[in-house]
Amino acid sequence: MSSSRSRLHAATVPPADLRVVIAGSSGVASVQTEARRISDDLEARGFQVFCQFADGGVGDPGLFGCEFASLGAVDLVVVLGGDGSILRTASWMGHQQVPVLGVNLGRLGFLADYQPDEAGATFDEIGAGHFQLVDHLLLEFEILRGGELHTRGLAVNEVSVLAGPPFSMIEITLHVDGQLATTYRGDGLIVSTPVGSTAHSLSAGGPILRKDLDAVLFTPLNPHTLTNRPVIDAASRHYELIVPAPNEGSACVVDGRLVSGLVAGDTIRVRQAEPHFTLVETRHHGYYSTLREKLHWGGGLHDARR
Predict the structure, then answer these.
(1) Which of 53-68 are b and which e, b meaning 16 or more Cβ less than 10 Å from the residue's Cβ?
(2) Are 159 and 139 in contact (CB under 8 A)?
(3) Which of 290, 139, 154, 297 is nearest to 218 (CA)?
(4) Which of 37, 92, 147, 251 is deepest in the core (most CB within 10 A)?
(5) Taking the domains of the chain in order of start, what are their residue ranges?
(6) Packing angle, helices 119-128 and 31-44, rounded to 10
(7) Does the pLDDT of residue 39 top 90, yes or no?
């Protein structure tokens, strides 16, 4: 289990003792309506329910209106929206991660895997203990400037270094556990979790990793050297990215959100975070069914019965 703050585990705590937060972006169509309906569903089954909404689609965790820690004991967060809403919610929870159930009001919904009309049956399964909690790797990043901490945070999907305007090639030096590994030359580099392997990294030609692995994926963007291919390494290692001569518009982007522009000599440290990002899976939702249905994995197999 990802956090001692959550008491959600199979068949040991009655629903009346579980506190559920419904989170979402008010900028997502129908989120308020679905929040009321799902809140009624949860309360009818005995759960304690609280709601928090971000103001529009901006990824600032403070836009939920309060710090997550101020809510006290929370056992489950039901996120309404798409995968972006889940990424913002994970950032909001910070190091106090609790299990997440994603209800898809967006388009793809790879992390937000449940449809609104499945919510009632899903809450019945949770109340009966017919579910599992699946931990996923989180990355912690730090940007050092002049040897001092500039910014830090957590990443569910990826930490990316992007060349940016004027869109000329940049160099990114990778050190692993303090030793020089290689220098990438190209349009940037994506450092991805297994969950993020089906996001930006996949679009850049990276492989799909099973999302509960403890591994880190390095995917170069348009590398100048043909031998620079995606590389998978252990999550237990410490990684440093150094950009000796960035472009004027070079930046560090985390989970699709700009966290900082880059200047010469900036060092980006990436390592496995102490908490995990945890998703709730029920009997009818699993990793391979998600691949088949969301990514049409295996051609015609996406129509096969589970």
Answers:
(1) bbeeeebebebbeeeb
(2) yes
(3) 139
(4) 92
(5) 15-137+275-303, 139-272
(6) 30
(7) yes
Marked catalytic residue, from 41, 60, 75, 83: 83
User: pTM of the entire structure?
Assistant: 0.87
Selected from 2.60.200.30, 1.10.1200.10, 3.40.50.300, 1.10.760.10, the CATH number assigned to the domain covering 139-272 reads 2.60.200.30
pLDDT in tens, 161-210: 999 999 999 999 999 999 999 999 999 999 999 999 999 999 999 999 98
Is 83 part of the annotated catalytic residue set? Answer: yes
> CA-CA distance, 246 to 250, in Å (whole number)?
6
At the top level of CATH, which class does the domain 15-137+275-303 belong to?
Answer: alpha beta
Q: How far apart are alpha carbons 127 and 9 in whole angstroms?
A: 10
Cis peptide before 166 (omega within 30 of 0): yes
pLDDT value at residue 55: 64
